[in-house]
Amino acid sequence: MRAFFVTASGTEVGKTVVACLLCRQLSAAGTRVRAVKPVITGFADDAPGGTDTALLLDAQGLDATPGAIAEASPWRFRAALSPDMAARREGRSIDFRRLVDFCRGLRDGAEDVLLIEGLGGVLVPLTEKETVADWIAALGVPALLVTGSYLGTLSHTLTAAEALKARGVPLAAVIVSESADSPVPLAETVETLERFVTPVFALPRLNDTEEWRAAPDLTGALTPVS
Ligand SMILES: Nc1ncnc2c1ncn2[C@@H]1O[C@H](COP(=O)(O)OP(=O)(O)OP(=O)(O)O)[C@@H](O)[C@H]1O
Ligand SMILES: [Mg+2]
Q1: pTM of the model
Q2: Could you give the CA distance from residue 156 to residue 57 in angstroms, rounded to a whole number?
Q3: pLDDT in tens, 150-162
């Protein structure tokens, strides 16, 4: 199974949108895909609707049953904060080794592609010492770096790419998901980033179901990287 970690320059830029789109595009091409969000914050077990976990399950044609949620997102926290802060609110903490082992175990599944959605940006603290970037590095899988097209994204994107590189994480692709009301043209953002990192894919703002159906094919971002 080929595994990819979907991370980002920050929160709310489009990781779930990209992961869901990839699930649908891969499935349509006959590729079996599993997508998970092992750690999620701002999650209430009695109201899973609309959460990243529920959206990812839906993109795989699965219902958000308690069992499916527990399998996709074993580490769920109520507070909409960074994971270490949210865990602390509940007197809990994330066992980094167990998290890494859980993700490694998923690679033994029967699917062709595994997508692991992180949370927030690459350097969000998960534990007292480890960040999301450390998690990706421990897994040894390539990253899909999702970013926006808002003013300021160039530095955020390249900083995130540098943080991954510093830990030896291979960058499979950067995907620029067009930000709402961005004053910066998407194409120009992509062209600028391409001078520093490659490959870069553009995902325009998708406003309705028709646009989602006609979204650009992102499966080319899932090529092996050394
Ligand atoms: N290309 C796009 N077209 C339309 N809406 C988008 C696009 N990219 C992101 N969005 C919207 O922006 C919001 C944030 O996107 P998304 O939930 O995918 O971000 P995220 O990086 O997964 O955030 P989190 O850090 O909370 O996991 C959502 O409402 C999503 O639908
Ligand atoms: Mg998300």
Answers
A1: 0.98
A2: 29
A3: 999 999 999 999 9
